[in-house]
Write a structure and sequence with these properties.
globular; 2 domains; four-stranded parallel beta sheet; about 45% helix; Dehydroquinate synthase-like, alpha domain; Rossmann fold; three-stranded mixed beta sheet; alpha/beta; about 350 residues
Length: about 350
């Protein structure tokens, strides 16, 4: 079992193993473990229930952006209550980012807060959503508008779980992987990851792939350990997300099929364009466009910036009429600039 330690401290306790059942040693001594899992992951849940029969109950969740709401939170709370969960309970979530977000939020409010832990099963969740303690649900078609920041007891990363992902879902996580290394490019990891993604079907059991996933998890865990409540450095993790959440909002209104990771990919390209237009970088949009296309990621938002403006103004990161835009100076060097949406639109649309 591998554990990521940042600056001598356990940062959100990110732990890795070969199979999901390797999590069992982390559960030893727990008297009240309650399982919540993505309904599509019944085999993984069954294997864990067999390996650790002390789990008191298991609840399957239907997972989609439409189901990421307070009804799902209440469903988990009701299940915990009916199963007799006390304030000493541990809620264990198996699934992608929707599952870990909803379960973490439910744990944070049930009886004013119980502990929770994550076994993220998608690339997006392993390198981003399952790490860092952000929980929440969508509200009124706005992404993650309700939620809290509360750290999981641990996040158990198992790269072998990625082998069953559909390619589209895998690529959805790849955008968050590249985003991480755009923020902190350790020894050229960004370029190596572009090459890795471009090489075809990855070997998830290979050392290089496991190192890449753990390196990304380590970057995020380090940032979170230094700024757990997003007062400064942690804002950098939102690279591309102001645009991405607006793209997702517009897609939901129109009934278009765009995943979170696809929106993040498009959003990063818009951030790169804005960086170039503001003079923070030169040629960044062109470079990232080439890299992302090589990796198989979408680069063009189907909605022009002016269509995205309304949702960006309602972004949860907006304060006093300004939004914390995360912009690129270079690979591995990002900055946060407070701009009004009107200022950003002017820079993006001026010829």
């Amino acid at each position: 079992m591998t554990e990521i330690r940042i600056e001598g401290k356990v940062a959100g306790r990110v732990v890795g193993g070969a199979t999901p059942t390797d999590v069992v040693p982390l559960l030893e001594g727990e008297q009240e473990v309650f399982l919540v899992y993505d309904a599509h992951l019944a085999p993984a849940a069954s294997a864990l229930l067999e390996a650790f029969p002390a789990i008191r109950s298991a609840l399957a969740l239907e997972t989609s952006e439409e189901e990421k709401n307070m009804d799902s939170v209440l469903l988990i709370a009701r299940s915990l209550l009916e199963a007799g969960a006390s304030r000493k309970a541990l809620l264990l979530a198996i699934g992608g980012g929707i599952t870990t977000d909803v379960a973490g939020f439910a744990a944070s409010v049930y009886k004013r807060g119980i502990r929770y832990a994550n076994i993220p099963t998608t690339l997006l969740a392993q390198v981003d959503a399952g790490i860092g303690g952000k929980t929440g649900v969508n509200f009124e078609d706005y992404k993650n508008m309700l939620g809290v920041i509360v750290q999981p007891v641990f996040t158990f990363v198992c790269s072998s779980l990625l082998a069953t992902l559909p390619r589209r879902e895998f690529l959805s996580g790849a955008s968050e992987l590249l985003k991480t290394f755009l923020i902190e490019d350790r020894d050229g990891r960004y370029g190596r990851t572009v090459s890795l993604l471009s090489s075809g079907s990855p070997d998830f059991g290979s050392d290089i792939w496991q190192e890449t996933v753990f390196e990304a998890a380590s970057v995020k865990a380090g940032i979170v350990s230094r700024d757990p409540y997003e007062h400064g450095e942690r804002r950098k993790l939102n690279l591309g997300h102001t645009f991405a959440h607006a793209i997702e909002h517009e897609a939901r209104l129109r009934g278009d099929d765009i995943t979170h990771g696809e929106a993040v990919s498009m959003g990063i390209l818009l951030s790169a364009r804005l960086s170039d237009r503001l003079g923070l970088s030169k040629g960044m949009e062109g470079r990232l466009r080439q890299d992302f296309l090589q990796a198989g990621l979408p680069v063009e938002s189907p909605y022009p910036p002016e269509v995205l403006a309304g949702a960006m103004e309602k972004d949860k990161k907006a304060e006093g009429g300004f939004v914390h835009f995360v912009l690129l100076e270079d690979i591995g060097r990002v900055v946060v600039r407070d701009l009004s949406v009107a200022m950003a639109l002017k820079a993006l649309t001026d010829n």
